[in-house]
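Sample pair:
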Amino acid sequence: MSASPTDLEFRVLLRTATSKDAQVASAVLERAQLHAHACADMAELTHELAQGAGALLVAEEVLTVAAIAQLKSALEVQGPWSDVPLLVLARQGADSRAIAKVMDEFANITVIERPMRVSALVSALRTALRSRRRQYEIRGLLEGLREADQRKTEFLATLAHELRNPLAPLSTALSLLSRKRLGPDESDRYFELMRRQVDHMVRLVNDLMEVSRITRGKIELQMRPVLLDAVIDDAIELSRPFIEPAGHVLSVEIAAEPLVVHGDAVRLTQVFSNLLNNAAKYTPAGGRIHVLARRDNRQAVIEVSDTGTGLAPDTLNSIFEMFAQVSGTARVAQGGLGIGLTLVKSLVELHGGSVETTSEGLGRGATFTVRLPLERSAPGVPTGSAGALNQPGAPLERVVLVVDDNRDAADSLVELLNAMGATTLVAYNAEDALQQARSCKLDLAVLDIGMPGMDGCELARRLRAEPGGDAITLIALTGWGSEEYKERIAAAGFDRHLLKPLSLPDLMAVLRAQ
């Protein structure tokens, strides 16, 4: 029976003075449960070394000038992580010229003088093999880093491509609107185009932020009893813009009995909308997507199946890894960064569940199966939508100060607030904002954090110190959502923290609550 690669990598290659010495040494090492391989000459030893070795045990007598050169050449072609331990059995007495030369030529060398105790030889070899095992661990780390670096490079190329895609129609639409006087119907068409492209870019950025928060353990789940059919309904609504334009037929089969899990409804909706989006993108136009939800003992099992491009057997285990989308059949998808399934896996596992995928092969479709633990009892389970948006209502009778060094961002937010009925003031730096605040009684202030000079946090502290400053609702507006920034913003005296790009429903929820 041939040796496995692992066996080869930990064997001791012998090159002794005589064949009898080789037989004796092999027997001694086998009794010590060390795998030995005797070589007839240096050519065989270097050949076997290329196949794999944990250590070399060589007699002084065979170390001729030619043999040393041959061995050195064989070791030099090893990987940069490799430093094969070399043990030399030396003759008793003064150091010979051969011993002196090998000690000059090789770094990882141990000289053992004969006669020696068997226990001393075995101990030296075991130490050498432990050293070799650490080298293999370093090799594994280097290979992992090399693969991660390659995937990161591919991902950055994909990110650049995906961001350019929506920027192109945005730029074209802006050029048309600025160069040509358009009627309401025609301009509305371009505004709708721009909105779609901005929404697409927002989804890309949100996915990046989400996966960053999850991998750093910074995500917080709002856990409560959740009815799965409501979650799936919301997920379907979110995914319709991907499913319907492609002409896919969507069928849904949900168990008649209530399937209630302990989870975060928003995050679970994100899980199933990602799976549905994935199915829609990787299924040719006019395909079929099927959602099945059922009970399996104490688990809810949700399957999302499609008739799409399918998966090769060797990708089934890697499909949930970060940026796995950038290779293989991913090129047929209509955009994406390859992190949607990573988010799915992470969120499902945070809910105590699991997710797996099966496929009969390329072109044969795929099925993603999510398993979630069911609640033992489900009192007070909400039966409505997992999440609803706040819609604009009565005019907003508030005096609002907007502060942002990005003039376009500040002016567009002011126009939006004016359209909602607010009285607005605008400042493009912190000093001007302080002057505006002293001249008018404010209800709210929306402050950009990352301004040059005095930043938003310092401005918030200064506003709080002004007479009546405690009555102002301070809203931080920033592109940073880490826990460290949240703590810094709260310490500065802000009431709320909103992320860029600003979500109108989020802003409305804050303004209507005041």
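Residues 23 and 307 are 62 Å apart (CA to CA).
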